[in-house]
Amino acid sequence: MNRKIYYLSILLAGSMLFLHSCKKDDVAAPVITFSISEETINVRAEETIKIEATVSSGGNVSQAWYINERVVSNNNVFEYSFDTTGTYAISYKATNNVGEVKKQYTVKVAAPIRVGGSSAFVDTLFEFLPAPGQFINKAPGNLESAKGIVGKTGMVSLGAWGGYVIYGFDHSVANKDGNDIDIMGNALPEWSEPGIVYVMADDNGNGKPDDSWYELAGSEFGKAGEYMRNYEVTYFRTASANDDVAWQDNKGGSGFVKKNNFHKQAYYPDWITADQYTLKGSWLKSKLNLSNPGYVTNLPHEWGYADNLTNANGGNKVDISNTVNAQGSKVNLSAIDFIKIQNAALGDGVGWVRCLQKLPALKTCIFQNNKMI
């Protein structure tokens, strides 16, 4: 229904008083549509955000865009790039003489993609924390071996379940179509020691792996009885170097990392001063076959793990697109800066990593993007 508003006008002419009314139609409140409807926007620093507000009705409308209550634009287009990481509030307000329309966005700004380096190999060792094992406290299970992978091929033992190593690249590794990283191992056709791969983006831009780790889901991910998240194992210091290393898990299990006659040094890492330490992560059911003591096998899983024989050169290619968060939900990362390899099997085997190498590969790898070179 068209409403009418009557205005009272008073005109004085001598001693005469004239009264008359005038009619005016209402103007509707603004009707606005936005080019980005999602209320949360994820970008990297220095990437441009562009949002357009289209006024479909409302007559003469005043518009304003704000960042944390600071006006940055007075037209219908918001176009801006953030220089630093963090969480920001973007708001929009359109007003006319009848009403107003508001829109709120939350912008999460991650660190920019680093493009300075060009090495195909990892560039920096950040942490090496193996579980007890037959090669720990000697090559290839010591800190020197872990450092030996930086910038070239090398070998490092991760010990029993949960042992891990963390490296960084000299540039951000982009998430492109297909596999992005090649991890070399020493697996054999009937002996694999699967390691789960985790990746991290340098969201806060400080060059350290202190943001969120994301697991790369492999072929066993989510399979009941074959895969388990939030697994923990505690290892206990031995009284002497000749003793087996006891362990207990958070599921009521226990056992020993057993000594053998070929490696007689202490298996508990000698640089760990505590009498016990706990490792946490995801668990894979081992395919260890002990039925023939003279020929023990541990068959590989289908795909997605380190030191898990799947191609001719012993390498394992992984795809950043397979990232999942701590709740097991898929995450879309545009690039990563850090990588973590963790032994995922619990048994009489040792986790290994020989070479971490970004694709496209150098001559040390014989596969590139799933094609022979």
Automatic annotation (TrEMBL):
One Pfam entry name: PKD_3
SUPFAM superfamilies: PKD domain (SSF49299)
PROSITE patterns assigned to the protein according to its UniProt record, in alphabetical order: PKD
Span of domain PKD: 56-116
Upper classification of the organism: Bacteria, Pseudomonadati, Bacteroidota, Chitinophagia, Chitinophagales
Source organism: Niabella ginsengisoli
Protein name: PKD domain-containing protein
Superkingdom classification of source: Bacteria
Entries under Gene3D superfamilies matching the protein: Immunoglobulins
InterPro entries associated with the record: Ig-like_fold (IPR013783), PKD/Chitinase_dom (IPR022409), PKD_3 (IPR041696), PKD_dom (IPR000601), PKD_dom_sf (IPR035986)
Listed transmembrane segments: none
